[in-house]
Specification:
single chain; about 70 residues; mainly alpha
């Protein structure tokens, strides 16, 4: 008795490279947004930060949550 199996064709090297490059680009954009958010918050005065309920030590965490989500 003969058996046949079907398998999905594996992605070629160019498709895998394109996926890798897209991932790097996405990570770069997220990192850029994170840095911009941190810099914008650090440029604020202590009083402005207090008005929005932040302290200077909370800036990196708030920026991370804003850009990357929880």
């Amino acid at each position: 008795m003969a058996y046949s199996t079907l398998s999905a064709p594996s992605a070629g090297i160019s498709a895998r490279f394109a996926g890798f490059a897209a991932g790097l680009l996405q990570n770069w954009k997220l990192r850029r947004d994170y840095k911009a958010t941190v810099n914008a918050l650090r440029a604020m005065s202590a009083r402005d930060l207090a008005d929005i309920g932040l302290t200077r030590c909370a800036i990196p965490g708030v920026a991370r949550e804003h850009v990357y989500g929880k």
